[in-house]
Design goal:
heterotrimer; A alpha/beta; B mainly alpha; C mainly alpha; B: mainly alpha; Arc Repressor Mutant, subunit A; 3-stranded antiparallel β-sheet; 3 strands; elongated; C: mainly alpha; globular
Chain lengths: ~300, ~140, ~220
């Protein structure tokens, strides 16, 4: 049985000013994948290809066992999709949207939808155009969640939300996962959210996937080594150093494959290791992108 | 959703370590008794709003340290060892004492110096306790 | 093809255009009344009203249901539903035609009935039928262009081409031998030229609809 919820094999899409190249992606059922990338890196394009809204030029896409875009109607029956540039019908109410979607999705759970109305503090009889941005995001999320989808695809779900709303949304997203067969893929600028709830993280930059690994692996592998060099000391040359920062006698080495042995190697080379800092996901991402771009221009 | 365990956002240590520490504290204090069932990995992940993989890692480490036991398909329990609570405190004490020794060494203190400083610390603690009782 | 989904989409579109549809319905009935009971003057005025309302509802529906989705950014919401281009295109085409055709048919039937009932204008029969179908053809062009381009600019251009087409076709048809002679006569006649004209028009309608469907199937970017 295919345990993969989403699979991309060598997917490419070419536009005039931007192209997505050789995207390979695997998302296991029951996992949460966070997608991190700068603006224009290709997150939205990848997600649209996943949803069958954009057809790839090359490569195979499988979602919930359905080839995309060929079988998109069947796949979308089990998918809840919310994206930044998606709008609901302003002239209609939230109640209208719920009534519209209910007969379409066999697993629609009105009781759950009602509880979400309370939780998100939304009034069903209010017209969508009268809602604030945060309320609109929560409304769209409610409509996606109430259909009890097997896969949730979210493009920037917490962007523009106040801190309280953000926590509400994260809680509801995590609640989805109480069921082992449900999967979440979300892209976000908010690396803290991604860091918190993702099992797996994919970095995308300029149309290419530059790294993909378990979150815990990322947090384990990346370290900043703060060194103190002796007066005429030289920065020690070590493998797997992706960046050298700091200056003079206080260099800072960034590594993406930390081993405790590195500390003793540095000390042996005469450089005292003052501290070994962990890095947040945001720092890891930025370092990853910078080092890659430096390598490309070098 | 409220949880027995609370994760701090400003704590810069890895999340799985925070979870481990809090689980150990609950066990040491006796809130989670020996042999008692604890939330499943998924339940705790949902309650803490933390990824499943992080909780899984914490549980694996806790199992390795003998604090909890995970039964296949049945969830996890606190290790049914009556000495577990005190043992965890003893382990924590050892860790701190090792740190004392390391720092003392770094400062170039002799063994007697380090021992004297330790005795001063326990005396201070006793004095402040007495002061509270009087007041 | 998921017909339940197509129905949902059609009803959704009609819901959002309900004011325009209901107003046109009311206006259409009123105009019909004027035509039937308004005597000679009423006949012409009512007819003009009917034509105007028919053109208006056609354009409003096309703009609202086709160009509107892209302008209001609701396209992503619709396409995230369990549909493919098939259901979407079918729903849009049917949603528009199911409203427009009854109006159009009423107008045609009414006009034809009047021609048949009044011997002095019997000769106009062939011309009227051909022009009526021409209006339908031009509307189908508008729907097809709007569906494929989702652009206000292109759709308006299609409307203008359609209007021009009606006038041009009207002129041509009025000068075609098989139709010209007898147009102002008092005999209802139907010559091969008329059949050919109709055939061309229906072929165009099929071309526009099928062509639009085909182009939709080849689209690689739905957003």
């Amino acid at each position: 049985m295919n345990d993969l919820c989403v699979q991309f094999d060598g997917v490419s899409k070419r536009y005039k000013h931007f192209s997505l190249e050789s995207i390979d992606l695997q998302l296991a059922t029951g996992a949460v994948m966070g997608f991190i990338g700068a603006n224009g890196a290709g997150k939205s394009t990848t997600i649209r290809i996943l949803m069958g809204l954009v057809h790839q030029d090359e490569g195979a896409v499988q979602v919930l066992g359905h080839p995309m875009p060929a079988d998109q109607a069947a796949a979308k029956l089990d998918i809840g999709f919310v994206s930044e540039d998606m709008r609901l019908y302003g002239a209609a109410t939230l109640a209208w949207h719920m009534a519209f979607l209910r007969p379409i999705y066999p697993r629609w759970d009105q009781a759950y939808a009602d509880s979400l109305l309370l939780r998100f503090d939304l009034k069903p009889e209010q017209k969508i155009k009268g809602l604030s941005h945060g309320q609109r995001v929560k409304a769209a999320l409610l409509l996606a969640l109430a259909r009890r989808p097997r896969l949730l695809v979210l493009d920037e779900p917490t962007t523009g939300l106040d801190p309280v709303a953000r926590v509400e949304v994260l809680e509801e997203l995590m609640a989805v996962l109480a069921d082992e067969d449900r999967t979440i893929l979300f892209s976000s600028h908010n690396t803290k959210d991604v860091e918190q709830i993702s099992d797996r993280i994919t970095f995308i930059d300029r149309g290419r996937i530059i790294d993909c690994d378990d979150k815990e692996s990322f947090l384990d592998r990346w370290r900043r080594l703060r060194l103190v060099l002796p007066p005429d000391g030289v920065v020690p040359r070590l493998p797997d150093i992706v960046q050298v920062g700091g200056s003079g006698r206080l260099p800072v080495l960034t590594t993406n494959r930390f081993e405790p042995a590195m500390v003793s190697v540095c000390n042996d080379m005469g450089a005292t290791v003052q501290a070994v800092d962990t890095m947040t996901l945001e720092e890891i991402f930025v370092a990853n992108v910078h080092s890659r771009r430096e390598r490309l221009t070098a | 959703m409220h949880s027995d365990i609370v994760i701090s956002q400003t704590d810069s240590r890895p999340m799985y370590l925070q979870i481990m520490e809090q689980v150990k504290q609950r066990v040491a204090v006796g809130d989670w008794a020996a042999g008692e069932e604890i939330p499943s990995i998924r339940q705790l992940a949902v309650a803490l709003r933390v990824s499943v993989i992080t909780v899984k890692r914490a549980y694996l480490e806790l199992e390795r340290e003998g604090v909890i036991l995970t039964q296949q398909g049945k969830g996890s329990i606190v290790t049914p060892d009556p000495n577990l609570g005190p043992r965890l405190y003893h382990e924590e004490l050892s860790e701190h004492l090792d740190e004392v020794a390391r720092l003392g060494n770094l400062l170039g203190l002799s063994e007697e110096e380090i021992a004297r400083r330790t005795k001063e610390a326990t005396s201070r603690l006793t004095e402040s306790r007495l002061a509270k009782e009087i007041a | 093809m998921n017909y339940a989904m197509v129905r949902s989409l059609i009803f959704k579109d009609w819901y959002f255009q309900r004011k325009a549809i209901l107003l046109s319905l009311a206006g259409g009935l009123a105009s019909l009344g004027i035509v039937i009971f308004g005597g000679n003057v009423g006949f012409y005025i009512g007819l003009i009203f009917l034509i105007t309302i028919m053109i208006a509802i056609g354009a409003t529906l096309v703009m609202g249901t086709l160009v509107g989705e892209r302008e209001n950014q609701t396209l992503a919401f619709v396409m995230s539903l369990p549909v493919s281009y098939r259901e979407y295109s079918t729903a849009k085409i049917l949603g528009n035609l199911l409203i427009f055709v009854p109006f159009w048919f009423t107008l045609v039937a009414g006009s034809v009935a009047l021609i048949v009932a009044a011997p002095t204008i019997h000769g106009l029969f062939a011309f009227t039928v051909i022009m009526a179908v021409e209006i339908l053809t031009s509307t189908c062009l508008m729907i097809a262009v709007a569906l494929v381009t989702e652009s206000k600019g292109w759709t308006i251009s299609a409307m203008m081409v359609g209007n021009l087409g009606i006038n041009v076709v009207g002129y041509i048809v009025a000068h075609v031998p098989g139709i010209k002679d007898g147009m102002f006569g008092t005999v209802i006649q139907w010559r091969p030229a008329a059949t050919i004209s109709l055939a061309i028009e229906f072929a165009l309608i099929a071309l526009f609809i099928v062509g639009a469907f085909y182009i939709q199937s080849r689209k690689k970017d739905f957003l």
